[in-house]
Amino acid sequence: MTIRKEIVDELLKDYKKPEDLIGDKGILKELQKELMERILEAEMTNHLGYEKYNPKGKNSGNSRNGKGKKSIKGDFGEMDIEVPRDRNSDFDPQLIQKRQRRFTGFDEKIIAMYSRGLSTRDIQAILNDLYGVDVSPDLISIVTEEIIQEVTDWQNRALDPIYPIVYFDAIIVKIRDEGHIKNKAVYLALAVNMEGHKELLGMWIETTEGAKFWLKIITELNNRGIKDILIACVDGLKGFIEAINSVYPNTEVQLSIIHMIRNSLKYVSYKDRKKVAADLKCIYQSTTAEKAKAELDKLSKTWDDKYPLISRSWKNNWEGVIPFFAYPDYIRKAIYTTNAIESLNMSLRKVLKTKGSFPNDDAALKLMYLAIRNASKKWTMPIRNWGLALNQFAIAFPERIHASSFTQKN
Length: 410
Hints:
This protein has two domains: 100 residues, no CATH class; 243 residues. 48% of the residues lie in helices and 17% in strands. The protein is built from 19 helices and seven strands. Strands 5-4-3-6-7 form a five-stranded mixed β-sheet, with helices on both faces. Strands 1-2 form a two-stranded antiparallel ribbon. β1 and β2 form a beta hairpin. The longest helix has 22 residues. It is elongated and about 95 Å long.
């Protein structure tokens, strides 16, 4: 709507300096207060069915009963407003509801800052600097605690019946437990769905990463609707393959190439890292398993004298590596280039590094969920060349990829 010029002139007639407009007692704040109180009065009129002082209200069974003061927080800072009351006490204003102490959108600002790893003290300081609002640690805790129910609903949502690729991994965080700070594993299951989009299926916390707990997770995913996984990418944890195949016997289990590379390079000095990485690339980018084995032998001859653990690691895990080479080209590219669990872990570590430790499991889940929610906003496009990869999946797994697989879950 357009505000008439004479109204603006009237508002600005005593204007002398910026504080008169945007200060704590400036025109904008006073105007906002007046508008809110006018809207509340209009809501009361609608509730009662008659205007203030209208004789129609006599013996109507309800009437105005003065006003109550309420202090609310928002982008405008902290503001005291007057809220009309009725004698029957059944007036329920919509603009600022009963027991509401923060204006719409204010909680979202707290959650947005919290999700980026800011401490309670930092959030307090920023809100005070930007809006002149003093927020207690208890208020921040109350606002962010509401996320736990959202996490629970998300963790129990129904899943698609089939996923072409699922990555299983864990990230270690420090959490206080029974009075001591312990390293706990947060298990992650990141999928690529039939549309080629990344989707985090869930996250779980346990003291240590183990195949027994992975079995519990995989069983839960099955109970939530997943009936088939074409390819599962895992790290080298003992018993992991057996855990997956006990629930999904037809799933091809591929040892994570990213994990193999990362584990290999941790043995290498900085000056040799580029050369070793280039030799490793010759292995995992080979066209066949035979060519890859020849490249591994070549790497062994080149580096065993200096770094014997690299070739030994690849040879010991070779059975988990070679399924990769049996897949068609675009499936291989999808498996490797969409190893997005690494970029997800990077997003999580960026937030987690601001926290020394968490007071409990819920605090860790809350922050990681919010960080993942932020990261997933960028997951709007399917992975590169997904259409070609999906056609290759249909050729490689014709009995398992069919028209019903493309049905979206509600």
